[in-house]
Amino acid sequence: MPDLAVVADIGGTNTRVALAEGTAVDPSSIERFRNSDHSGLPEVLERYLRNRNISPAAACVAMAGPVRDGIGTLTNLDWSVDRDVVAEATGAGIVAVLNDLQAQGHAVDHLTADTLTEILPGQTDRPHAAKLVIGVGTGLNAAPVFRLGGQTLVPPSESGHVSLPVHTEEELRLRDWLVRVHGTAGAEEALSGRGFERIHAFLCEETGASPLDAEAIMAAYAAGDPLARRAMEIFARLLGQMAGNLALTLLPFGGIYMCGGVARHFGPHLVDLGFGEAFRDKGRFSGFMDQFSVQLVTDDYAALTGSAAHLAERMGQA
Q1: d(Cα 293, Cα 297) in Å, to the nearest integer?
Q2: Same domain, yes or no: 35 and 107
Q3: Rounded to whole angstroms, how far apart are CA atoms 218 and 244?
Q4: A single GO CC term, please (predicted)?
Q5: What is the pTM (predicted TM-score) of this model?
Q6: Which residues are within 8 A (CB) of 81 and not within 5 positions of it... i.e. 6 or more apart?
Q7: What is the pLDDT of residues 226-239, one digit of tens each?
């Protein structure tokens, strides 16, 4: 088919590949490949297309790592991704390589109501206003989403490596502990999967308790453990402060969209843990913050949708 596209989302452990027509990904075409079983992305794409005897018109790859000029290196996998190599592996005439958060940004205008959960209400009647995606998972990142001239623009970003926003004496002690133990106090060092474990470990050092992994901390929180709850509260408040800072920097009146595995685990608890209060804690601008809605993206395939949407715009189908 002339408008058929192949899209891929590369994570640290698995790569998911699917077919798309326009902005719609075919759910029945999604296939997962374990990265350790393959030498690189070309092998995965060639195998996927060969099994289906398909020659796509376009291809887009979303990857967990920085991308520049169509070339990227994955953060947690010894693979590199090159636009020219993807073109050779797929035979596609239109090829794009995106950071995975950029792909999430391209997806936000195509998400359905059943894949979004409201965390904080806000004004939702500004469809062409800037939006913001915040990814919280193995790492942390954020990027604005703009609509200009009928095109979606999602500039690359490494926002997860800005300094951790700290306000209280406890947060200052956490910052100093992160520097002493891990060498830096970038936001990602606390606001990620490993960051959550580090917050708990910091509290354990102060109280003499034993550190736990993330899954055990969540289980302890569910069982009513006060130290686990405190770790959850610190995480939620720091995330609220970070999101609030980004909101004032970028003015995403079209909404803030949080994605990633850690965000999905924390999402149902964020309001109870103080996320909203920390988000609004901007002095005389506290009321101003009520304009920004915050939504949790629960669609695990949003990066594939965003890749398809990006290609559809380039092919004039969006």
Answers
A1: 13
A2: yes
A3: 25
A4: cytosol
A5: 0.92
A6: 10, 41, 61, 63, 67, 71, 72, 73, 74, 97
A7: 999 999 999 999 99
Query: Which CATH number fits the domain that encloses residue 103?
Result: 3.30.420.40
Contact in structure between 14 and 300 (CB atoms under 8 Å): no
Would residue 137 count as lying in a domain? no
What lies within 8 Å, CB to CB, of 297 at 6+ separation is: 104, 107, 108, 111, 115, 116, 257, 258, 259, 263
Is residue 98 within 8 Å of 312, Cβ to Cβ? no
Q: How many CB atoms lie within 10 A of CB 114?
A: 8
Same domain, 59 and 178: no
Q: Per residue in 6-39, pLDDT tens?
A: 999 998 788 999 999 999 999 999 999 999 899 8
List, in order, residues 6 or more apart from 177 with CB less than 8 Å away. Answer: 202, 205
Q: What CATH number does residue 200 fall under? A: 3.40.367.20
In which domain, by residue range, is 167 found?
A: 159-297
Task: Determine the angle formed by the axes of helices 169-182 and 193-207, rounding to 10 degrees.
Answer: 110
